[in-house]
Amino acid sequence: MSVLGVHGIGNRRYFTKAGNDLALANRAIGADWLRWIGQGGAKHAPARPPLEALPVVYYADCLDQDIPMGTADVESLGPLGRELFVTWAEEFGRASLGEQWADQISQNGAHKWVVRKPAEALVKHFGEQVRDLLARASDALACYFDPLDTCRREKARQRVADALRERRPRVVLAHSLGSVVTYEVLCADPDLGEGIDLLVTLGSPLGVPGVVFDRLDPAPGVKGVAGVKGIRPPRVKRWVNIADVGDPVALPPGRLGERFEGLDENITVSLNVLNPHGVKNYLMCRELADVLGRHLD
After folding, report:
1. Phi first, then psi: what are they for 176, rounded to 5°?
2. Range 212-218, long-range pairs (CB < 8 A, 24+ positions)
């Protein structure tokens, strides 16, 4: 059975290490994903034959980000990145601490470009790692959603669309920002969903209000009891979401189904306190092995 991966944030290093050779970057990230999912399968489903190949769509080279690679300096974020960072901090804090969080990051009417107080509050309550992760995620999404330079979004989407059209996978694994690109591509061209038995989103920010959900294209348009909702991509037979309970990117925790009609299964896991968003942990987890087992056996 053919499986296709779509990577998330923080993967520019593959392109750099490959000397800006796209083919080499593709092979390198595909080898890592295949090894990690193989290790998870060997541990949790030893009787199942391992995957022979796991190609991963590489698109990080399409995004020119403001934060230098290897850093997470919120002050380096551009205007849109700052706005996303502050909004994300608001949503993450509210999900973790309730409405009292609003007082922690209140800036007395200051513009959302002012990132200092939200950044300090994140460090105080959740540590530097959460601040840095949200900074990198905000930077990547600002590049992707930038209304002044739509070609980056178009290039990333085209890269994913070309791979779906060429490989016709039966299973798609999309992590982080990759779940956003994949979702938009499948909704924009329903024919690309033909033959996909299973879409698995890992650590997905699709449901984050004010950051991703309201910026999706095509825009969500299903009227629900709680307002406008998204849909399962057309012609995709089954959609499963897996999110670490501590993953600050995958908000709101355990509640993606409230934002999307047709999400067949929403699985909450607890994988790694130190790196709750890392794709390695998601690919190696028992829950993904179980989900794949139903489709690969």
Report:
1. 55, -130
2. 212/141, 212/180, 213/259, 215/145, 216/180, 216/183, 216/184, 216/187, 217/184, 217/188, 218/184, 218/187, 218/188
Q: Which helix (H) or strand (E) is 57 found in, with range?
A: strand 56-57
**Predicted local distance difference test score (pLDDT) of residue 260:** 94
* Residues 36 and 140 occupy one common structural domain: no
Provide the whole-model pTM.
0.93
| Boundary-marking domain end, from 127, 145, 163 | 145
And the tokens for 242?
Answer: 């897996």
What is the rounded radius of gyration, in angstroms, for the C-alpha atoms of the chain?
18
For position 135, what pLDDT does the model report?
93
143 within 8 A of 65, measured Cβ to Cβ = yes
Ranges of residues in the chain with a pLDDT under 50 are 69-70, 108-110
Q: Where are the alpha helices (DSSP H) in 78-115?
A: 79-97, 101-105
**What pLDDT shows up at residue 97?**
76
Tell me how far apart the alpha carbons of residues 297 and 294 are, in angstroms, rounded to a whole number. 6
Expressed as residue numbers, the domain containing 126 is: 74-145
Three-state secondary-structure class, residue 202 = strand
Q: What's the rounded Cα separation, in Å, for the pair 176 and 60?
A: 12
Same domain, 85 and 178: no
